[in-house]
Amino acid sequence: MKTQVGIIGGGPSGLLLSQLLHLKGIDNVVLERQSREYVLGRIRAGVLEHGFADLMREAECGERMDAEGEIHHGIFIAHDGVKSRVDLFEHTGGNSVMVYGQTELTRDLYEARDKMGGKVIHNAEDVKPHDMLTDAPYLTYRNGDEVIRIDCDYIIGADGFHGVSRKSIPADQIREYEKVYPFGWLGVLSRTKPVSEELIYNKHERGFALCSLRSQVLSRYYIQVPLTDKVEDWSDDDFWAELKRRLPVEVADALETGPSIEKSIAPLRSFVAEPMRYGNMFLAGDAAHIVPPTGARGLNSAASDIYYLYHALLDHYQKGDDTGLDSYSDTALARIWKAQRFSWWMTTMLHRFPDNIEYDNRLQQTELEYLLSSKAAMTSLAENYVGLPF
After folding, report:
1. Is the pTM of this model over 0.90?
2. All domains of the chain, ordered by start, with CATH?
3. pLDDT, tens digit, for every residue of 11-30?
């Protein structure tokens, strides 16, 4: 088999790039290790930057997002039982975010690929990139006992943190930066009315909590828990009781509870791999970087990688211009590190760190008080939250 762009990973990043390239006549194949059902079963982020939403529309995948997604013009930050609103719209000159679940976004991308006859191969076993330093890289994967080869011009590694792409780069050719946080998020998805029309980020002495949503009938809630906790340790009743303890009284009193549809614990880490290119293989999304979910940058950071790759590949195939490909890693990383900083800052400001001395706690409190009293600080938060320009 031969194609122009071979994409490893059938999550939202790989599918979005595949769709955008196909619309411009650039042939590509997506290889996904898991089944489509497995990919659609992942419960992930639901807050999209305005730039990401625009990219979905350019990919002709935004119709349902625009019909069912919710535009949010602000967020709440609560501490010491008090809820304060950050007006994203006002502080950014009219920008906002779109609340639309990653599962639904991925479903839209799959349907678009089906409609266009896109080549998405699921259950592709033992995917491997080869000859990345040459002008003729290729991919192999196994289907039962058969090993299939795909020759391509470029390989895109969009196969996540645990994927094969980054691991295929020699250790002396890549540098990794990592920070592991001493806690995780226990998340519950429930078919209940959200307690707030906008997200509530809540700092509490017992630990961080977040009130989020997927729609007006589907809520997503999180609480900070020790890394030693397991999902089995938390019944639904225990979760709701602990969430209520951390929320302002009026929010806790209004909280509608119900059986969990999904419950999971996600450890928090910050991670960056540099560079994001090895020969003719380019890394994108979680394959190259991870952020704590506090700042809603994970999926959005992946989308910025896709934006840069899409335009770089367009310039290569339509104009013979490789400037975008040559500068991809530096350009992407410049924005990635800003997202890393913002996510680290939000996480540090709002969570309870078990090893903090009292001095750290007072600084944390002062940081939050300054944020809520300063227009400049609020503007900085808002600009980062809605998404920096591509």
Report:
1. yes
2. 5-70+101-178+269-349 (3.50.50.60), 181-268+352-386 (3.30.9.10)
3. 999 999 999 999 999 999 99
